[in-house]
Amino acid sequence: MQRALFSQLGPRAEKGSPLAGLLLRRSRMDRGRVSENVLEKNKTLEAEKIYRILRVIHIVLVLLALILAAVLTVMVLLLPDLQEQNGQLKEMQASNEALREKNRILIKKVPESWIVHNGSLYYFSCVAKSWEDAERSCVSLGSHLTSVTSVSEQEFIYKKANGAGYWMGLNKLKSSDWRWTDGTPYNEKHTNNFWAPNEPNNLGDNERCVQFLKNSIRSWNDNSCFYPAMYICKWDCKASALCP
Ligand SMILES: [Ca+2]
After folding, report:
1. Angle (CA) 242 153 237, round 5°
2. 199 alpha carbon to ligand 1 midpoint, in Å?
3. CA dist., res. 166 & res. 122, Å (int)
4. Fewer CB within 10 Å, N or C, the chain?
């Protein structure tokens, strides 16, 4: 470039002349200004690049904030449903646990020689106890001393008892009227023919608990509640929803 300038100026700009020195300084100044301009331009481009990156980051952050707000809104709207479903799930778990407990009772009863009859399980004890101790034994097994609610049930039990004395749930311990310990209403009309002849006689004014005693449809006898006798527990299989 210097050489081209010297050639255009001719002999006046020969190397070493004052004019040549002036031109050389001017050329150097021009090149310096060009470098400054390039540097300034590069700085501007770099600043624009950083600005664009910051704008992209800003847009991304705004979008993330909007998405987060939308998710939170949906969660707030769904929260009552989730709470309701959680409540239903807890109820189902409680119901399932109750069924498991009943199943454990059933599994325990079967090997203990419980007998199934018309949707109920009956346990005929091999040991003799007072009426109240017998009832406590039945309760510990999840049942009560048996009630009798039909001719069919009466026939099933007296035939199985075969004339041996077995406590049932009928008693007058807490009332002047006969009551079943499992809460079954006492129906005098339907069970009147189940008493043995001349019973109940309340011998010695001390007979407030009832037992099977005769191998007959008329098998009931009132007896002292302290008398040790075998006993029959009944577990209502139908109410447990475990039996068909
Ligand atoms: Ca009697």
Report:
1. 10
2. 6
3. 12
4. C
Whether residue 212 sits in one domain with residue 129: yes
Quick one: 176 and 129 in the same domain? Answer: yes
Query: What predicted TM-score, i.e. pTM, was given to this entire model?
Result: 0.57
How many domains is the chain built from? 2
How far lies 166's CA from each of 86, 100, 145, 160, 226, in Å? 49, 31, 10, 10, 13
Q: Which domain holds residue 119?
A: 113-236
pLDDT digits (tens, 9 = 90+) for 9-29: 555 556 667 777 787 888 788
Query: Average of pLDDT values for 121-149?
Result: 95
C-alpha 152 – ligand 1 centre gap (Å): 24
Give the percent of the chain with pLDDT over 90. Answer: 61
Residue 192 CA to ligand 1 center (angstroms) comes to 15
Clarify whether residues 72 and 119 are in a common domain. Answer: no
164 and 67 within one domain = no
